[in-house]
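Sequence, please.
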């Protein structure tokens, strides 16, 4: 019996069969729509099941990967050896007065819309960000002069020993695309946001305006992982790329968007290798021209084919 058969047998003791998938194409679970197969993909419905899965992985020396919407991940063409723990079924959102509580697998955009419906202001900036609550908190996601750090109150996380901790805003050490969650590989189970009562029409108008601006300025019609590179200190990645003459540059099916040069898109059946080759080419070109290092914002996982 190989490890997959053993693992599935163990998982079946506490999970539904529908929540366990074998040899799964990760292109179905990432916004880039590329990537090879993962050995196993599981979708737990309870916090304690996340802990049990991690314990199984650790006891058997198996790698595991935490995924929300897959909107900030590039999986290589050879796929992933190990277990992908997808938190999409931990997606409950509740509102208590001016507090919004969302599980880690809930959509950040859905949280923004729920707050709008309850006339709560503070999460308008998040309306078009394609990730989950977990990824957004871990990366301190932000847009249009708003960031998670501005509205987060506390977060329930699980460490790699399966222990559950509650961290305050200050304890999260939120910075530009970083947090203590990334430093310690914590898993976000739940986040509490402190919002404020506001005027429903103004909130709805702000969200509509931001969504319109996204559609006009970003290549949402193509698969991508959003902004490909972090903002280098003192610069804007998109401007550096454009000023390097790379707008519209293409390798295989991957392209630097001619609508927004901060995005690398899957324009035409790209492979992960196409995207990676283009990322490296952009980095090298910008370094040679401006002596600025571009660091990918997207997380790169897996094996080459």
């Amino acid at each position: 019996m190989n490890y997959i058969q053993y693992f599935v047998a163990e998982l079946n003791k506490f999970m539904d069969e529908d929540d366990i998938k074998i040899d799964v194409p990760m292109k179905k679970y990432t916004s880039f729509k590329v990537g090879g197969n993962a050995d196993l993909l599981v979708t737990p419905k309870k916090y304690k099941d996340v802990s049990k899965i991690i314990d199984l992985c650790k006891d058997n020396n198996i790698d595991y990967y935490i995924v929300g919407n897959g909107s900030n991940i590039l999986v290589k063409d050879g796929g992933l050896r190990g277990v992908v723990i997808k938190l999409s079924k931990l997606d409950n959102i509740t509102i208590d007065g001016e507090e919004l509580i969302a599980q880690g697998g809930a959509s950040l955009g859905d949280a923004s819309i729920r707050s709008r419906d309850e006339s709560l202001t503070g999460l308008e900036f998040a309306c078009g960000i394609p990730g989950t609550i977990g990824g957004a908190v871990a990366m301190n996601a932000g847009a249009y002069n708003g960031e998670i750090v501005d509205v987060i109150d506390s977060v329930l996380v699980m460490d790699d020993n399966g222990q559950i901790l509650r961290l305050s805003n200050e304890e999260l050490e939120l910075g530009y695309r970083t947090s203590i969650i990334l430093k310690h590989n914590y898993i976000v189970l739940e986040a509490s946001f402190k919002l404020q009562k506001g005027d429903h029409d103004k909130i709805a108008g702000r969200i509509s305006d931001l969504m319109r601006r996204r559609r006009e300025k970003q290549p949402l019609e193509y698969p991508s992982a959003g902004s490909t590179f972090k903002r280098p200190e003192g610069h804007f990645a998109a401007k550096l790329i454009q000023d390097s003459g790379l707008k519209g540059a293409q390798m295989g099916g991957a392209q630097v968007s001619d609508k927004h040069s901060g995005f690398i898109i899957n324009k035409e059946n790209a492979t992960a290798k196409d995207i990676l080759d283009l990322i490296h080419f952009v980095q090298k070109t910008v370094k040679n021209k401006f002596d600025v290092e571009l660091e990918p914002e997207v997380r790169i996982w897996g094996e080459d084919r």
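The chain has three domains: 3-86, 93-215, 219-301.
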